Amino acid sequence: MTRLLLRNFREVPDVALSASGIRIRSADGREVIDGSGGAAVACLGHAHPAVLEAIRRQIEKVCYVHTGFYVGEPVEALAEHLVGHEPGGLTHAYFVSSGSEGVETAIKLARQYALETGQPQREHVIGRRQSYHGNTLGALGAGGNLVRRPPYAPILPQASSHVSPCYPYREQRAGEDDAAYVKRLADELEAEFQRIGPNRVMAFIAEPVVGATLGCQAALPGYFKAVREICDRHGALLILDEVMCGLGRTGTLHAWEQEGVAPDIQVIAKGLGGGYQPIGGILAAGRVVEAIRAGSGIHRHGHTYAAHPVACAAALAVQQVIHEENLVEQVAIRGRQLETALKRRLGQHPNVGDIRGRGLFWAMELVEDRETKTPFAPELGMNGRVKLATYARGLACYPVGGTIDGVRGDHVLLAPPYITTEDEIETIADLMAAGIDDAVKGLP
Ligand code: PLP
Prior knowledge:
Layout: E1 16-20, E2 23-26, E3 31-34, H1 37-40, H2 49-61, H3 73-83, E4 90-96, H4 99-116, E5 124-128, H5 137-142, E6 160-163, H6 168-171, H7 178-196, E7 201-206, E8 209-210, E9 217-218, H8 223-234, E10 237-241, E11 265-268, H9 270-273, E12 280-285, H10 286-294, H11 309-324, H12 327-346, E13 352-358, E14 361-366, H13 382-393, E15 395-396, E16 398-401, E17 410-414, H14 422-441
Parallel strand pairs: 3-15, 5-6, 5-7, 7-10, 10-11
Antiparallel strand pairs: 1-2, 2-3, 4-12, 8-9, 11-12, 13-14, 14-17, 16-17
Helix pairs in contact: 2-11, 3-11, 4-10, 7-8, 12-14, 13-14
Bound molecules: pyridoxal-5'-phosphate.
GO cellular component, one term: cytosol
Cofactor: pyridoxal 5'-phosphate
Pfam families: Aminotran_3
């Protein structure tokens, strides 16, 4: 009997004994390709010597100090690395231990910005349906996750509401061109601002490329420009959650670079520390920081492990390797290869409705019928079946979405490490395609 509790109270997965590069070895003697970097985390793969060395050096110097007294050496250096060149006007960084904590920090910073600028009535966050911003109550409230939200709905902060995501595969109407669809979504957001009261909204939050709930869904061109314009017009902040899609994953360092707009607050996490240490954070625009600095000077927020020295040392090493080895460019190149490889094998597959993504961030939407886009029955748990079938062949992929409460979409996600080679990309696509076939054959 295990005394360990994980998400599934009835099962404990294989014990991972060692991992290096893009492979993980478990206690049952199996070796598996980490095709999704866990949940799009292991951007450098495993056991990168430069990161291990940075962690070792920091542990020997200072493992932990509280930010009420000290800050560890690598913390300032990490902030400088990320925002020293002020990308998109983002000038400051704040580090926490996870993506959810980053989202909480972003929401509370937006609220405090409202207070410090004399707008105490701004207390509402608009998010999007089928988005995921984390599991803590504030983040869960801002998100629209169909599985994780419902049990806690009664205890979530009520000052949030949701508009439609940009989801062309299912929600763009027949005959509606991209510009008209983007306009329809912008009109819906504008209407939501009007419904809440435009001067009551403190922020709009969205993932530039939706990960865990919509399977690598980027917005159509012009969508984020329209969103930015609406936020600016009504004095609300734009929070972009790049926990999953940020720091190189989509082929640019920040996913927003491909949208031509920058956020007021950006949330980062997974690709920040690459899983070597638990770390997340926010990058904030100068005007937000300066308003608080000129006002109370204190962000009424904080966590015991904020700006953890070892986590920041690991993240700094990860970011330096990404920079020095030109891995963002590499992601763009390997990403195009992965796209081609997946579309070649699965582009006409009767049970793959859509293949979408950017960089090394790709998902397949699984359907019972490709022509009608009919989803699989929810009780089949198709994304979980594909995960198991693919794992049996030696590839870990990440099941996301699901068909729940009439909302459709079973997806499996691939997010291989940035160091994945050309041959390994082909192997990943082969295993993915074979895993989907096995899962379909195994249906009752
Ligand atoms: N935001 C996004 C976009 C995510 O994908 C996730 C996790 O998957 C989170 C926030 C929450 O991050 P964490 O699980 O580190 O708390």
